Structure formats: C-alpha cells, structure tokens
Amino acid sequence: MSATVKTAQQIFDQILNKEQMFILDVRNKDDFKDWKIEGKQIDHFNIPYFELIDGVEEIMDKIPTDKEIIVVCAKEGSSQMVAEMISDQGLTASYLKGGMKSWSEYLYKKEVYSDEKMKVYQFVRVGKGCLSYMVVSGGEALIVDPSRFTDIYKKAAEDEGVKITHIVDSHLHADHISGGRILAEETGANYYLMQSEGAVFDFKALENYTKIDFEQVSLEVIAVKTPGHTPGSVSFFVNKKILFSGDTIFVSGLGRPDLGGKVREWAKDLYDTVYNKVSLIVDDVIVLPAHYVDFEEEVNVAGYIGEILGEIRKQNEMMSNQSEEDFVEHVAQSASSETPPNFEEIIAINRGVEEAEEEKKQELEIGPNRCAVHHTN
Amino acid sequence: MNATKILDAKGLACPMPIVKTKKMIEELQSGDILEIHATDKGAKNDLAAWAKSTGHELLESTEEDGLFKFWIRKR
User: What 3-state class would DSSP assign to A370?
Assistant: First the structure.
C-alpha cells in the first residue's frame, strides 16, 4: 500500500463535516505546541519525524485502526516518509500536501450576507485565523483586510463579474503581510489606510474620509476611527448593517493594545472606542472581525465567523459597565501574553520600510495570529 | 574544526538531511566530528532538535549565503 495525499482544502472540508481524524504531527515538539491543525473531531499525536527514521513499529500501538490517519509536517517531505512507513505496516495513511506551510496559506470562501444592494463574502484563512472580505455591489467590489494571496480576490471578483475598485486595511497588521498594496497595484483599485499607521508608500489616507461611496446603489462604507488595537485602527460600517471591526472587536474578545509598547495609553483609546463609539451602534448590526481564535467555538450556525453586536455585548463583560480604570487595568493584565510570531518584522513590511521575498514572507507568517485578548467568561 | 567526515546534503529537502546525518553518524566512532553542509532551512531547527534527542553534541553551526554548516560530535 502506498500513502495518499490530502490537500489543506480536503482536510478543512472534513473538519467542517465533523469527520473523525487522527493527526500524526511529525514536526518538532515546540512547533507542535505553538500551532497545529485544530478541530473537535481531531485526535493528535506528536513525535518528531527524526525519531521515526528507523521505522514506526514502536508507535504503532499509539495509532488507531478505526480512524483516518493523516500525517503532517512542516513542508511535506517527512510526513510523506512517515505515512509510507505506516502504510507499509498495513494501515491506510495520508499526508498533508505542502505541509503546515500550505495549511497556513489556505483560504476558504463563504457567503455571509446578501440583500438587494450588496453581497458579502468572508475569506477564512484557516491555518492562521485571519479573515478578509469582499463586498460586491453592482459591478464593483471592495476588499477588506486582504491577505497577500491576491489571486484569490481577483478570482472571486471574476466569478462575480465585478471589478475590484476599493481596498481597505483596518490597521497595520502585525500577524500577517497585507495584500492591500499589491492588490491595488494589480487591479488599479484605490487603497485606503490610516495615515497615522505610518506606512511610507502611496495610499489614500482614511483620515480624509468619513465614508467611501461606491457604485450607484447607495452603498456607504463609513470609516469609523476605532483606535485601541493600534492608534490608527478603523472599522467599516456598511449600509448600517455590517461592521467590519478589524482587530477592535472580535466575536470572543477585544483587540490587544500592547503591541506598540504603550499598553495603557492604547487601552484608554480602546475604552473610548468601545464605550463612546461602538456603544452608539445598534444591537442587530453584524460584526465581522479580522480574526478568530477557535474556528469551531466562534463559527455561527450560518457557517461564518461573525455575530450580531448585541450578542457580543451580552457575552463580553468588558464592553459595558466598566470604569475606564478597571478596563485599562484588566486589559493591561491580560495583554502581556505571547506576541504574534515575528510581529516587528511583519509590521515593518506592512509599513513599507522593509521588503521581503516570497519565501521570507511564508516563513514570517507561519504560526498563530495572537491578536486578541480574551475578556469573555 | 577538524571534522572526521563531511556530509554533503546540499539541495536535499526534509527529511533527507537528517536521514543521511543519522546514517553517517552511525558509521563514526564516539567523539568523532561530522561536518554537515545543507541548503534546506528547516535543517537548522531539525538538526538541533535531533542532536538534543539523541545526545550527540551540536558544536557549532554557521550560515552563509543560504549554505548551512553544522558540526556534530558523536556521543
């Protein structure tokens, strides 16, 4: 028997279908501890591949015979080797094509909203917990917080028969390299970012806009300055129906304000944003954030990551009835956790002060996003 | 550093650099030093972790223009 290959898409579809899986992760222990393929139906076993070079006999008792076995590693090679060894033992095993690198780069598209004026798609970057969006109206599309895999958005626009005319970044991302600038160059679309985020290339400064209109149908994108996660964080309020909340509000928490090294100052901004700006937005608005932490915890019945604001308010003790002092204290306490991997270098690239080759970008982005502080119980 | 043997693992992708390292170190005597040349970036982490788990000593590693060199003393 020889091992079969599985793509990231196939594995994610199986997670969505809640299929039982046994993942034999043959990366180093630290990498596994940091970041792995997650799902409620998944059992894991981690052993570095180099402990299996002489054979898999000694771990065969750890491998179930009644579940699908998928071997994963960083790039593919060693998982293929191990999957073949397991197959030689008489079990069926497959390995992840492209390894965790391809898991990190896989995006899944899901329609989240549609009315007579617009249609909204969510792109879920499964391996990183990053979300980006496409709003389609008439013959145009607006992209929110694009990843660097710009072909995906171009393809999605093509499928809809529309042209990408506007691209917005809610803030200068620290966990992934923005595709905003590249996508704007490729499509000729306007690219918007807050000037105060410190980017050094050409873009349209969101400070100059209270709203971005597009198409003849009255689709208003209102840029709400929501400082806190970063000083120049912004949310986009579309047709008073949808709030693209960037890293300000998540389904299960708020954006961490500590990555700039001024946690208390930024936490005050976050308080002001939550208590004086977001508080004015009504309960039935759908919040679509830029990240999630746990897909299965946060995905809603409709199959996307998002929640109406009223529900988020109910679940999140930090969003009401707290004094500024208590809020800042709580945030400062909980924000001192681990930072997103390589965040300083990623920020420098997103700011345009550093350039990186494709391979370097892949490397920098590997790992979890760690953009939230959790305040829910 | 005086290496007893040199392993050329350039151009090889994971898992081959470690597979070959393991094979070659088995042919050496305790205390011998194996010098490894690799171009796979992953080799850096993997060799360190492998040496740690097997008890061989990673004496030194260098990186120049995408070429990684490692010196491992057999335990």
Answer: coil
